[in-house]
Specification:
The protein is α/β, with parallel strands linked by helices. It is 45% helix and 12% strand. The protein folds into three domains: 10-74; 85-275, Vaccinia Virus protein VP39 (Rossmann fold), CATH 3.40.50.150; 335-463, Tetratricopeptide repeat domain (Serine Threonine Protein Phosphatase 5, Tetratricopeptide repeat, Alpha Horseshoe). It contains 19 helices and ten strands. Strands 6-2-1-7-8 form a five-stranded parallel sheet. The termini are far apart.
Length: 466
């Protein structure tokens, strides 16, 4: 009996387990067909008879240098400068002034950009730090790590295409980049403030140059790990985070039910995590309900019950890494099929069925922006505006060019009385449309989403005071 694409062959299932064991990354069922194609290409490149022989050779450690070729093909590295700009604005306005006060004696800052891919994130941080007058004469360094040494090699070279630099403000682009044909080269002096080094988050101890960190960005990383590995990685990060330090995650990530050492702090446009004892004097605690935060518990992805206190981590790979058997692979349709099903159910006003399909799509691939967008649309219909905000923000974090989601987010912000933030979203809608960089939610043609013309008209109406 042949295997369905969602199940994968036994060899592909074994490869999924090997990838998880080696890197911590969980390959969702929707990507198994892609993984099999990659394995076939790599088997041919290594002169092996097929996927089964390739996986056997990997498992037997007969291809010790193969992981360097395989990892870049199966890990996601889509990034660009100033991704999730609200986080960088909060770092500039709130986090850096706090750290300047806390580190005035040593005049040093220690920052970690984890899973930095080709270096857009640490370079964005470096631009902010270099432009901060209060840090003039300070010693600050960013350590930028990634599992993929090929990506790190590209980061060290510092050459980027148009898409990567599209969100860089024009003055910073002129100051910190030089044109090299069709590419942009990051300033060598700025690159010298960034220490690039390979690091596998699935294996501790983390070989970082410092015992304490003032700021950690680990954005859009945990969503690819299973819960035990998430808990274990965060326990290591908490040990490294200084008492005054802050941790930023991706918009669709949460530490809820993962650990209790760090707590979420509402910083306005986004959230960060800090040690429970380190809140600056006078800063309010977030409300007990986390409904409006990216770190909120998602009803569509319930977590298993945990002990009241997480186990003390040991400096060895966590249980999820040491499992010998392959992970269970659910025989689910791909994420796009689930989303199409959700859209059909929603168009027929079968809200509960649509919610179940969205839940399954998010379980199959939590990095799919359309799934977060449709989840937000469902919250919007139900009048759960705060939760809709969170889902729309997650979708835009993963794909900032989704102009329809920006319109929906802007309208949510208006309903909540945040006109300034709403206008910012509508200005971005007009910028996307004017530059031809917008992307539509093509799977949801049956839903009443604004097309290009209506989005433009709505944005102009709001910006005129309507």
């Amino acid at each position: 009996m042949s295997q369905s694409p969602a199940e994968g062959s036994p060899a592909v299932q074994q490869l999924v387990a090997l990838i998880r064991e080696t890197t911590g990354n969980v390959i969702p069922p929707a990507r198994l067909a892609f993984l099999e194609e990659v394995a076939e290409r790599r088997a041919h490149a290594r002169g092996l008879s097929g996927v089964a022989a390739y996986v056997h050779a990997l498992a037997a450690r007969e291809l010790p240098d193969e992981w360097g070729s395989l990892i870049p093909l199966v890990t996601i590295k889509e990034s660009y400068f100033f991704r999730a700009p609200q986080q960088f604005e909060v770092i500039r306005q709130r986090i850096l002034p706090e750290l300047v006060r806390a580190r005035s004696a040593s005049r040093q800052l220690r920052i970690w950009s984890a899973a930095c891919a080709r270096g857009e994130e640490p370079a964005t941080l470096a631009m902010l730090l270099a432009d901060e007058p209060a840090l003039a004469g300070w010693s600050w360094t960013i350590v930028a790590t990634d599992l993929d040494e090929e990506a790190l090699a590209g980061a060290r070279i510092g050459l980027y295409g148009e898409r990567a630099v599209a969100q860089v403000p024009p003055d910073l682009l002129a100051r910190w980049f030089s044109r090299r044909g069709k590419l942009y080269e990051l300033d060598s002096g700025l690159r010298s403030r960034i220490l690039y080094q390979p690091l596998n988050l699935a294996h501790a101890p983390f070989a970082l140059p410092w015992d304490e960190l003032d700021l950690v960005l680990m954005r859009n990383v945990l969503i690819y790990f299973r819960r035990p590995l998430q808990r274990w990685v965060i326990s290591q990060v908490a040990r490294l985070l200084s008492p005054e330090g802050s941790l930023f995650l991706g918009a669709s990530e949460t530490l809820w039910q993962i650990q209790d050492e760090l707590e979420s702090v509402d910083l306005g446009p986004c959230f960060a995590y800090r040690h429970r004892e380190s809140r600056p004097a006078g800063e309010a605690r977030p409300a007990p309900s986390l409904a409006k935060a990216p770190e909120r518990p998602r009803a569509v992805r319930p977590a298993p019950p945990l002990p009241s206190k997480p186990p003390t981590p040991a400096p060895v790979p966590p249980p999820a890494i040491r499992e010998a058997s392959p992970p269970p692979i659910l025989a689910l349709p791909g994420v796009h099929e689930r989303l199409l099903e959700a859209a059909r159910e929603l168009a027929a006003n079968r809200i509960a069925a649509a919610g179940r399909a969205v839940e399954q799509a998010l379980a199959a691939d939590p990095s799919e922006p359309s799934a977060h967008a449709l989840e937000g649309f469902l919250h919007d219909l139900a009048g759960r505006t705060d939760e809709a905000l969170t889902s729309y923000r997650a979708a835009l974090y993963l794909d900032p060019a989704l102009f329809q989601v920006r319109v929906l987010l802007g309208d949510c912000l208006l309903r909540l009385g945040h006109r300034d933030r709403a206008e910012q979203q509508f200005r971005e809608v007009l910028t996307l449309l004017a530059g031809g960089r917008e992307r539509a939610l093509v799977l949801f043609g049956d839903l009443p989403l604004p097309d290009r013309e209506r989005a433009q008209r709505r944005a102009r109406q709001v910006l005129k005071g309507g």
